[in-house]
Amino acid sequence: MKTTESRERLALTLLWITPALWSVNYIVARTAPGVAEPHMLALGRWALAGMILAFIARQELWRERHSTWRAMGQYLVLGALGMLVCGAWVYQGAQTTTAMNIALIYAASPVLIALGAVVWLGERFSWRQGLGVLIAMSGVFHVVVKGQWGALGQVQWVAGDGWIVLAMVSWAAFALLQKKWPSPLGSTARLAAICMGGALVLLPFAVWEWRQPDTPAWSAQATWLAVCAGLVPGIGAYWAYGFCQKVLGASRVAASLYLGPLYGGLTAWGILGESMGWHHVMGAGLILPGIYLASRQAPETPEP
Description:
mainly alpha
């Protein structure tokens, strides 16, 4: 019981940290155009992450090698959803769309995950959690439109928005399938197996990009971007998200994604030198209590 309580406390803490780790990917995506092609960058990111994770979990992976091989189809699917679509395609979309559009589109992914968890996985969703989702969503919108709600009607959709829509839907499927497909592997070993599947799926696309005449030569800066993306939003964020979902459930963890636009704004302000506005502060005032309500476990229904 004590171990279960400590795991839940850790998962609840990681709910607030994971989106900050993912926000590093905003910097990578904005720096990558002209430096590294989307699929090559994603392959470098996930190949590095997979090798590190496989080394850490080598004993468990060897012990569970037969069950892992039998489930290889699942790991290829998860790798395609989480590393190809939510990795390379996000880098592709970031070349033409804006950060505001990306944040606005991704704001819908927790709703898809929560609804999918209720309909597909049979998870319970209380009115308190629903209220938290609505409050957090209003905070997200306030941040992404910079406090100017009329700007919603002025959003200009470009090709990159389509890539981000696909990535948003793919992320919801990735989160739900991890819960739908139970695994004997722990969080680290399972993420290593998913990375292997993702690297295999990414490889032919990366080779195709590498063979194009206008592809920039791989440089030290490209290596740095791959390492940064592999360690922080790769190993750190994906491992933490998988651990939280295993402990807390898909619908509760999905609410943490509402912190993404807020943390993304803080990252842009602190590292990229972009201005911090009152809309971030007001958005935080809605997002943070919304996360608290949405991540609380639904009360048990007494048996008749």
